[in-house]
């Protein structure tokens, strides 16, 4: 089963993604205080208490947001997995990562400096493994050749050396699927071509096994390289 956010990401509806997530980022003090019957107007809460309350409310908002973007569907995939894989999902992926990182930065900047790592919500969300192969969102982008999403995913903390259930990195997945431009993007990002994956094979070996010459020609690797 998919949530509305999953469906919006599959279909590339950035405006729907924003409409679903923006309300979750709200941590308005007046609304929060009314919910808890706290009267801030007449100073019935010390200044330090107001600051602490604001901080708690903002962290709660981030938790709500993080929960929405990390909810898995029946196949174990989050909206980020689907946005990374979908043909029309690039803008949705960018919007989710922007909202998630911006919300954390707001807490870091305005309330309690040094307490929250603004990159951590994105990093944690992008580390979730789902689907039959235990794929991260970067693996999903590799599987479908979405090279236009590599830079954004890496900039927000995606691990280029993350392993799926077979022991393969996104580079291995892209090479085995014949996605040459994705291979280029990963190599330019500094991923080593000879990183061992499934059965000790490099991505070069997987490309050769699958017969993808378009990927083989992109490797700065000797043809005599052996699997580990």
UniProtKB/TrEMBL annotation:
InterPro entries cross-referenced by the UniProt entry: Ank_Repeat/CDKN_Inhibitor, Ankyrin_rpt, Ankyrin_rpt-contain_sf
On whether Repeat is a keyword of this UniProt record, the answer is yes
Write down what this protein is called.
Answer: Uncharacterized protein
Keyword Repeat in record:
yes
Q: Which UniProt keywords apply?
A: ANK repeat, Repeat
Lineage of producing organism: Eukaryota, Metazoa, Spiralia, Lophotrochozoa, Platyhelminthes
Q: Please tell me one Gene Ontology term that the record gives under cellular component.
A: nucleus
Lineage, top-rank taxon, reads: Eukaryota
Mapped ANK repeat ranges? 1-32, 133-165, 166-198
Recorded source organism is Protopolystoma xenopodis
Q: Name one Pfam family in it.
A: Ank
SMART domains referenced in this protein's UniProt entry, alphabetically = ANK (SM00248)
């Amino acid at each position: 089963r998919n949530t509305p956010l999953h469906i919006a990401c599959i279909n590339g509806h950035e405006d729907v993604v924003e409409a679903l997530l923006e309300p979750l980022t709200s941590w308005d003090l007046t609304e929060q205080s009314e919910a808890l019957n706290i009267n801030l107007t007449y100073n019935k809460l010390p200044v330090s208490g107001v600051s602490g309350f604001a901080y708690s409310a903002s962290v709660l908002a981030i938790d709500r947001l993080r929960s929405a973007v990390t909810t898995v569907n029946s196949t174990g995939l989050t909206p980020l997995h689907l946005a990374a894989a979908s043909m029309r999902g690039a803008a949705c992926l960018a919007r989710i990562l922007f909202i998630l990182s911006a919300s954390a930065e707001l807490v870091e900047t305005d309330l309690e400096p040094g307490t929250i790592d603004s990159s951590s919500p994105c990093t944690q969300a992008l580390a979730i493994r789902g689907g039959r192969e235990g794929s991260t969102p970067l693996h999903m982008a590799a599987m479908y050749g979405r090279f236009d999403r590599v830079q954004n995913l890496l900039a927000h903390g995606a691990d280029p050396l993350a392993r799926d259930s077979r022991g393969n990195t996104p580079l291995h997945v892209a090479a085995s699927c014949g996605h040459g431009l994705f291979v280029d993007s990963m190599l330019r990002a500094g991923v080593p071509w000879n990183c061992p994956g499934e059965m000790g094979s490099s991505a070069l070996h997987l490309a050769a096994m699958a017969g993808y010459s378009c990927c083989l020609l992109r490797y700065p690797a000797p043809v005599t390289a052996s699997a580990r």
